[in-house]
Amino acid sequence: MLLFASARVASGGGFIIGIGAEGDSADSRAYSLSLDAGLGERTWITGTVASSETDRDLFDLRTRFLHLGFDHFLDPVGFRIGAGTWGKDGFLESDDLRGSIYMAGGAGSLSLDLERRELELTIDSALLEQPRVVPFTANGIGLSARLALGDRTSVHVGGISYEYSRDIALQPRIDLLRSFTLSRLSLMNSLVDYRVSGGIEWELGDRRVDLLFARWQTAIDQGRVDSMGIGFLTPVGSRMDIELRLAQDRSEEFGSATVLSVFVYLFSH
């Protein structure tokens, strides 16, 4: 299971802590904790720490993730900036910078997203006197949008594409790198060529139901994964929400995997 934290902060300087769990049928788990805190009605800071675990016969993956962000809304335009680090020490590591410029109003929102990744792949072999570090970079650019179809229904779409400074498929240790593609829990913060997604949400009183469709292609072997999932969010008391999600990922190379998620959100007020 995955311990995951997410938060959406209401106006007025409140905060939300999110805790959750996620696991899949590909023997992967991830754990995280995050906090979103409002510094006023239009300014937020965010922080997330996370780890993932994927068990394999010859190689077990243990990755960690840390991200800090800042969001300021000037009505109708806002911006987000963030920095983070991800990876496995002595294998594959990444330092990331992210930024977004967005417009938001009652009818929906539109965002331009940019990302810069500085990656290092460590090659350790009995033929080498000491491990060799191979640096490379990735630049990402994407768009996302949300549109209200009424008081209680909305749709959203988004995507991002990356350009790498090296051909990942030609790098040493490619067989170990392919381990990242076996599960979304190890892949989504690692090496993808692109990600696209779309969904629809319905509000049913204080509850919410959504359908999400996604596709991504790995930069390691150009494998493509299609995903479809459903989520349900409901209040549990005045200061807590719980969200359940079930998804099915399908890949031509590795078959299918089922992902089950549970998220808990704790509100300050």
Strand order of the largest sheet: 1-2-3-4-5-6-7-8-9-10-11-12-13-14
User: Helix proportion of residues, in percent?
Assistant: under 10%
Unreliable runs, pLDDT <50, ≥5 residues? 1-10
Shape: globular
Compute the number of helices.
Answer: 2
> Assembly type of the shown chains?
single chain
Q: Please count the beta strands (DSSP E, at least 2 residues each).
A: 14
Rg over alpha carbons: 19 Å
Secondary-structure element sequence? Answer: EEEEEEEEEHHEEEEE
Strand content: over 45%
Main sheet characteristics: 14 strands, antiparallel, barrel
Mean pLDDT across all amino acids: 86
Report how far the terminal alpha carbons are from each other. Answer: 29 Å
- By helix and strand content, what is the structural category? mainly beta
Describe this protein's structure:
It contains two helices and 14 strands; from the N terminus they run E-E-E-E-E-E-E-E-E-H-H-E-E-E-E-E. It is mainly beta and 269 residues long. The chain has a 14-stranded antiparallel barrel. The two termini are 29 Å apart.
Summarize the structure.
It contains 2 helices and 14 strands. It has helices spanning 174-177, 184-187; strands at 15-24, 28-38, 43-54, 61-73, 77-88, 92-105, 108-123, 132-148, 153-164, 192-204, 207-218, 224-235, 240-251, 255-267.
